[in-house]
Amino acid sequence: MEPGKDNCFSVPEHTALLDRELLDKTLGGHTSLIIKSMEMFFKTAQDLMDGMRAAIAADNNGDLETNAHSLKGIVGYFNQGVVHRLCAELQFSGRDGSLPGDHARVEREFQRLEALIRDLCEEMKEEMVRLA
């Protein structure tokens, strides 16, 4: 990819990662359910990211696929865009046996996902304050 060119995982600074319309649709707009779901996401997402980090370090394609697939599932309640697509890309990397041969690319995608998950969590925290 040429320097300066956006890829499909680029997000303009002003783009919200938390899809409030999707959230209302999937959780019916129930404030307490939304807050509980976000609280569960914080812990579960961290555990799955830790699992992906360990899988990449160990060049373990199976664990990468499993953790990325699980994360994609829970991300799907809050984002069907770039975060969801990047989880899918990492899932497919594990399924296709990209490690160790394409380790550098997988590591870059994971680091991008890590940053997006942090940003998504920040948006969720802001939404929880707004809903409280």
Describe the structure.
This protein is mainly α. It has a single domain, classed as Four Helix Bundle (Hemerythrin (Met), subunit A), CATH 1.20.120. The protein is built from five helices and no strands. It is elongated, with a radius of gyration of 15 Å. GO terms for molecular function: protein kinase activity. Residues 103-130 form a coiled coil. Residues 30-132 form the HPt domain. This is Hpt domain-containing protein.
- Kindly state the number of beta strands: 0
For the record, the CATH architecture stands as: Up-down Bundle
Shape annotation: elongated
Please give the share of residues in helix: over 70%
Number of domains: 1
Low-confidence stretches: 1-7
**CATH level 1 class label:** Mainly Alpha
* Average pLDDT level: 91
Strand percentage lies at under 5%
The separation of the N and C termini measures 44 Å
The fourth-level CATH homologous superfamily is HPT domain
Protein name: Hpt domain-containing protein
Pfam families: Hpt (PF01627)
GO molecular function, one term: protein kinase activity
InterPro entries: HPT_dom_sf, Sig_transdc_His_kin_Hpt_dom
Topology:
Layout: H1 20-27, H2 31-57, H3 61-75, H4 82-95, H5 103-131
Helix pairs in contact: 2-3, 2-5, 3-4, 4-5
Pfam family, one: Hpt
Protein name: Hpt domain-containing protein
Coiled coil: 103-130
Keywords:
Four Helix Bundle (Hemerythrin (Met), subunit A); 5 helices; disordered N terminus; protein kinase activity; HPT_dom_sf; phosphoprotein; Sig_transdc_His_kin_Hpt_dom; two-component regulatory system
In short:
By secondary structure, the chain is an all-alpha fold.
